[in-house]
Specification:
Elements: E1 2-4, H1 15-22, H2 28-38, E2 60-66, E3 69-72, E4 74-76, H3 79-82, H4 93-100, H5 103-115, E5 120-123, H6 128-137, E6 143-148, H7 154-167, E7 171-174, H8 176-184, H9 190-201, E8 206-210, H10 214-221, E9 228-232, H11 271-278, E10 285-288, H12 298-307, E11 312-315, H13 319-335
Parallel strand pairs: 4-11, 5-6, 6-7, 7-8, 8-9, 9-10, 10-11
Antiparallel strand pairs: 1-2, 2-3
């Protein structure tokens, strides 16, 4: 099933052209951001007509389904809107992203995403503000995959889920970090099963998120009624990756001197084992952190994720990255139609 990638897909004020001319030297991402700042794309949109892009190749961004709901094989992540993007030891990174992603810029970005065939955004509940306003102002709305903190108390969990449903969540799943913490502290899967039942009772697809491979292993072992998994996946061939000897599966939410063993630079310690296990899982897999928070180029990251079994990819994207990322996703899905893990969803 596919949705045509409309030629209305644009990059505001010709940012892509500026990047193409200057991306030979230095970091592509740095050059792209510099170009966006130089030509004014970092300022709030004043409602100027968008410049059409003429080099979009004919084609489509493939769709899949989770719980009967169609969503694009690539969708946008909300961390860049929320301002808690991983930036290693660059302490100003998250604030810079917040300053760039004004409400007007978020609207512009979502317009662009939808025009390019990206029909879903992943959200932390704290990011609802501009997205709610956007959907209220548009005839075509963007779907939302929203994470909620896992709680053992049934009433607390149900209230958290209901709040997201009332705001318009299309999909609801457990927050990855909180789920990891719960399981690493011996919480077991009962609370996860209870959460899934409560989400399903609201009539939306229910998922489980996590960074640790232990999450899907334990859920599958317990035969929980998971509609989809949201699990990290990325390789380690980038300069800031923690050396193999120093890697640990750790509770990154716990506040102690060892909480950041991997120095905020790795979210999938065992990609080979993850791919091997997920090959046997007959449920949709939404992969996130596939670019290791900007350390791996999308041309490499998307290909590896799709090839190794991911059915959908969440990618944090600024407005000036969307068109190129969609082109890459279209190409990579086509090239990986024959893979060891069947497509699910």
């Amino acid at each position: 099933m596919a949705d045509k990638t409309d030629r209305r897909c644009f990059l505001a004020r010709g940012v892509l052209g500026a990047v193409g001319a200057g991306a030979v030297l230095g970091s592509v991402e740095e050059r792209t951001l510099q170009a966006a700042l130089a030509d004014g794309a970092a300022r709030p949109s004043q409602g100027e007509p968008a410049q059409p892009v003429t080099d979009i190749p004919p084609g489509s961004l493939p769709l899949g389904k989770i719980g009967g709901v169609a969503l694009s094989r690539l969708f946008i992540g909300g961390n860049l809107i929320g301002g808690w993007a991983h930036s290693r030891d660059l302490m100003y990174g998250s604030r810079l992203f917040q300053k760039y992603n004004t409400e007007a810029k978020v609207f512009e970005t979502l317009d662009l995403a939808l025009a390019c065939g990206v029909n879903t955004i992943q959200l932390d509940p704290a990011c609802w503000g501009p997205v709610t306003k956007y959907n209220q102002s548009r005839q075509t709305k963007i779907q939302t995959m929203v994470c909620v903190p896992l709680a053992s108390d049934k009433n607390e969990m149900n209230d958290a889920i209901r709040r997201q449903i009332d705001l318009g969540a299309t999909f609801v799943y457990s927050h990855g970090g909180v789920t990891d913490t719960h399981m690493m502290n011996g919480g077991g899967v009962d609370a996860i099963g209870q959460m899934l039942d409560l989400i399903k009772a609201q009539g939306v697809p229910a998922g489980v998120g996590g960074h640790s491979l232990n999450m899907p292993i334990e859920c599958e072992k317990a035969k929980l009624p998971v509609d989809y998994y949201v699990k990290t996946f990325h390789g380690d061939r980038y300069w800031s990756a923690t050396p193999v000897a120093g890697r640990e599966e750790y509770d990154w939410m716990r506040i102690n001197p060892d909480h950041d063993k991997n120095h905020d630079n790795m979210w999938c310690n065992n990609p080979e084992e993850t791919a091997a296990f997920m090959e046997k899982v007959e449920k949709p897999w939404v992969a996130f952190k596939v670019m290791a928070a900007g350390a791996i180029p999308p041309r490499v990251a998307f290909r590896d994720a799709y090839r190794n079994g991911a059915d959908f990819i969440i990618a944090g994207m600024f407005d000036f990255q969307i068109e190129e990322d969609v082109k890459i996703a279209i190409d990579d899905v086509r090239r990986t139609r024959k893979r060891k893990r069947p497509w699910h969803g």
